[in-house]
Amino acid sequence: MECSFQSEGLLCGVSRLLACKRDMTSHLVSLSGKRGRRKIGITESELILNRALFDTVNEEEIQAMTICPKHRKDLTTDWPGQKGQLCCYPSQ
Predict the structure, then answer these.
(1) pTM, 2 dp
(2) Measured between alpha carbons, how far apart are the two ends of the chain, in Å?
(3) How far, in Å, are 6, 17, 40, 56, 83 from residue 86 at the CA level?
(4) What pLDDT does residue 74 have?
(5) Quick one: DSSP state of residue 8?
(6) What whole-number distance in Å separates Cα of residue 56 and Cα of residue 70?
(7) Which residues share a beta bridge with 43?
(8) Would you tell me which of 17, 39, 76, 83 could form a disulfide with 65, CB atoms 3.0–4.6 Å apart?
(9) Cβ contacts of residue 50 below 8 Å, gap of 6+?
(10) If you average pLDDT over residues 54-81, what whole number do you get?
(11) What is the per-residue pLDDT for 2?
(12) Which of 9-13, 17-21, 59-63, 77-81 has the lowest mean pLDDT?
């Protein structure tokens, strides 16, 4: 199995994307700088797909997707988009 998020030439160990079930609401609220807005309810796998711009994949494709620990961390808590800007997911 290969990581669905890897670049050419890079190898990584993998696990199923749907195994990423942590609730990322607190993480996103902390990035937004807004207090009290905790009705986001987004899982780690949903956030990963959103940040990796996998918006056109169907449920069957998501079931087959895998992710390595490095990409899992890069697309959640170590996401480079958080530095120097506020997160606006979901934009409301």
Answers:
(1) 0.69
(2) 38
(3) 26, 26, 16, 25, 8
(4) 86
(5) T
(6) 23
(7) 23
(8) 17
(9) 42, 89
(10) 86
(11) 67
(12) 9-13
